[in-house]
Amino acid sequence: MTKNRKYLKDAGFSLIAILLSFLLVAAIMLILGYNPVEAYGALFEGAFGSSYSLSLTLSKSVPLIFVGLAVGFALQGGLFNIGGEGQIYIGGFVAAIVGLLLPHTMPALLALPLAVLSGMAGGFLWGGAIGLIKAKLNINEVIVAIMMNYIAQLLTSYFVNGPFMAAKSMTPQTEILPQNLQLPKIIPNTQLTTSLYIALIMCVLYGFVMKRTVFGFEVKAMGNNMYAAATGGIYVARNTVLIMAFSGALAAMAGIFEVFGTYGRFIDGFSFGIGFTGIAIAFIGQSTPLGIILASLLFGSLQAGAMQMSMMAGISANIDKVIQGLVIVFIATPSIIMFAFRKRRS
Amino acid sequence: MASMTFVVNILMMTFRLAVPIALASIGVSISERAGIINLGIEGIMLFGALGGVVGSYMFSSAWMGILLALVTGVVIGLLYALFVLEFEANQSVIGIGLNIIASGLTVVIVKFIWKKEGISGIVSQMSTYSIPILRNIPIIGAFFTDQSPFIPLTLFIALACSYGLWRTKIGLRLQAIGENPLAAATAGIPVARYRTGAIIVSSSLAALGGAYLSVVHSNLFVSNMVAGRGFIAIAANILGGWNPIGSLLASLLFAFAQALRFQFSSIHFPDQISQIVPYVITLLVLVGVGRKTKAPAKLGVLE
Question: In terms of residue numbers, what domain contains A55?
């Protein structure tokens, strides 16, 4: 099969999974007595209907792009990074604390990269630890990642409920970051910040590493066949640690730029499962940069439009999670999609 | 005397907190012994919790809630088996998907029934029972006063499942499947049927644990009320060495850490730190035991 045809087939796979999920959720709506046409109409309106909703969709998509890249990178190497949620919290927290502790006289041009890199280092170590345990002890990375997720979330929660809680604050969160460290807004009075550009730059970088570097080649070789890669002289153990570490750093960026962009501070539990959404994104986007951007826009629009859908159609805004979960289920079940493929052809 | 009462209080709270984790964890042991990973336990517990309140609401009886939760568990188990065994879906990924669906769909259904976002109405709660005579014994009489039948039930289920796994043909075959499905199939064991059974039992136990939270421990559904207990159950199964009694003991240990926190709330020991305990212990055990793990050899591998 030529490369282009493979991409087309992969895209077809993803589209069918998405379509099936939307149809099934429409059926659920009908059973519960809601109007799916009205609901999906409102969803679309809430996600794309005005410049405000469009910017909301984009701002919701940005962290998803980072986690999508994180999970996608690990998948390319044959590894499953389900620890994005923990890496987001560690990254966001470390960056926030460094940002707050640096002397305020330091120019932002120096302080901001320092904070961001510290957060990424946090994610690098948090993800790398999973890789190390996998490489050294051959323990399923999924179980380890789940434990690390809870530890990260509870640990950061402890810090912002205790030693690092903002003074005079009722909610568990850090002090607000200095204005000059917060990312500028692309459109005033929205949540859309320049983190969008950083996300796109990371996509280009990701594509470059995968296509044009030896490391990217090794990652793909491991993803194709771990044993063949080892036989071919690739240091599989070392790369397992590195892949999980870089994946962790990428996921951490999602947290860092939520903190420095969207919120301006670290808020307890701010991620709400972005790390898990990243899994759906990477699978639907087939771990390619363009696919990840498109999948992030889809899920970003779901999150952005869910409120409008809830108000107009009366259904709970949480229906977007059902769509998201179903997409994950279908994409993990190639035989169902193959079945749909064959049906259409016959 | 006062200190004895204190100990009894902590123990009783430990038992109450352990029940949902232990039930789910015993289920995890059974399905993993058959070589099936189910990371969707958290979601199944959530569906069970919802089934509990819906049944209790419709029939004004907590026992009917338990029944509906069990039915929910069986249905989800069948679906899970269909996807994992028949369609050969990736087990880890599909479990994560199931959790996300559960966190959304339960809230959607609650809003459909009670017109409220994220919280149900009050439903009938299971009444507690006291055992005559025994309840009058000083100090330990408290164990027999106003207790839910779920504490002895959980103990019974753990013992029964342990007996079933090691003392019956079905259980031994199930374990053979987890160790080497191909060899088991060659020996004429209907692998898929056994695995479907294991998944359904495991899913029902998780749903039962969820229903305990909503109609025994409390009397309503709150969004995401399972709050990570499904994953703690997976952790308890690992710490317990993939066996029902071990899972029960590990659940008791984790619950004890929680109970201490409630009993010592006056010291202001941070909530989050005591909640971290199960995860840190499990991680340390995983790393410590390392390659000498008791996990079934072909966990997560279909053939």
Answer: 7-345
CB-count burial class (<10 Å; 0-12, 13-18, 19+) for B303: exposed
What is the tally of helices (H) and strands (E) in chain B? 11, 0
Structural domain contains residue A1: no
Which of B107, B272, B279 lies closest to A157 in CB terms?
A: B272
A113 by DSSP, 3-state: which? Answer: helix
What domain count does chain A have? 1
Residue A51 and residue A10: Cα distance in Å, rounded?
A: 32
CA atoms lying within 13 Å on the CB side of residue B21: 31
CB contact under 8 A, B282 and A147: yes
pLDDT tens, position by position, A194-209: 999 999 999 999 999 9
Question: How many angstroms away from the CA of B141 is the closest CA of chain A?
Answer: 37
Question: Does ipTM exceed 0.90?
Answer: yes
Distance CA A133, CA A143 (A): 11
Cβ-based neighbour number of residue B132 at 10 Å: 7
Domain edges within chain B: 2-292
Closest chain A residue to B99, measured at CA:
A325
Nearest CB to B273 within list A146, A158, A280: A158
Model pLDDT for residues B6-30, shown as the tens digit of each residue: 888 889 999 999 999 999 999 999 9
Answer whether B193's CB lies under 8 Å from B86's CB: no
| Cβ neighbours around A219 below 10 Å, total | 26
Among A13-22, A180-189, B67-76, B130-139, the range with the most confident prediction by mean pLDDT is B67-76
Q: B243, B244, B278: which is closest to B259 by C-alpha?
A: B278
CA B77 to mean position of chain CA atoms? 14
Q: Please tell me whether residue B119 adopts helix, strand or coil conformation.
A: strand
Report the pLDDT value the prediction gives residue B1, as an integer from 0 to 100: 56
The C-alpha of B291 sits at a distance from chain A's nearest C-alpha, in angstroms, of: 6
Which residues pair with residue B147 across a beta bridge? B129
CATH number of B2-292: 1.10.3470
Asked whether residue A260 is assigned to any structural domain, the reply reads: yes
Q: In whole angstroms, what is the distance from residue A134 CA to residue A244 CA?
A: 10
**CA B280, chain centre distance (Å):** 20
Interface test with B, best of A21, A81, A139 (most B CBs within 10 A): A139
Higher per-residue confidence, A162 vs B69: B69
CATH assignment of the domain containing A165: 1.10.3470
Half-sphere exposure of A220 (CA within 13 A, CB side): 13
- Which of B100, B113, B238, B287 has the highest number of chain A CBs within 10 A, making it the mutation to test binding with A? B100
